[in-house]
Amino acid sequence: MNKIILVIEDQPEIRKLICMTMDYDGFEVHEADNGDTGLKMIKALRPGVVLLDVMMPGQLDGFQVCQHVRADAEIAATPIVMLTARGQQTDLEEGRRAGCDDYLTKPFSPLQLIETVERLASSATRRR
Q1: CA nearest 48: which of 125, 127, 126, 100?
Q2: Mean pLDDT for each consecutive 10-residue tract of the chain (128 residues)?
Q3: Residues where 4-aspartylphosphate occurs (predicted)?
Q4: Is the pTM here over 0.90, yes or no?
Q5: Based on the structure, what is the number of domains in the chain?
Q6: Dihedral (C-alpha) 40, 55, 96, 111: value to the nearest 10 degrees?
Q7: By residue range, what is the domain housing residue 106?
Q8: What CATH number did the domain enclosing 11 receive?
Q9: 99 to each of 12, 19, 28, 78, 114, how far by Cα in Å?
């Protein structure tokens, strides 16, 4: 299982909470505070799972980052979990259209986050 996790979240407090939650069992956690940097880090790190905020400043929001990943054959299989306060059905559908593997609405439980990451990281290992 690829234990590299990339957290792409613009709010430092939320990013810290996510990183603290995932800092266990040998996971290697990396951070980006915007979509542009996050996309570059996905290409460089090849993480086992990307935890991606939807609403971020800069050129790329979370949906756009997800679309770019799915369009790039080298990184298209990277599991992506959207993390967002936008929990309307239309938002969930937009996340699916962008290509995310899962969608967690803030606030989410740390246990739910851990279970989602472990499931996706394990399934990604079998797909690659």
Answers
A1: 125
A2: 93 94 90 97 97 92 96 96 83 88 91 94 66
A3: 53
A4: yes
A5: 1
A6: 90
A7: 4-127
A8: 3.40.50.2300
A9: 25, 23, 24, 10, 21
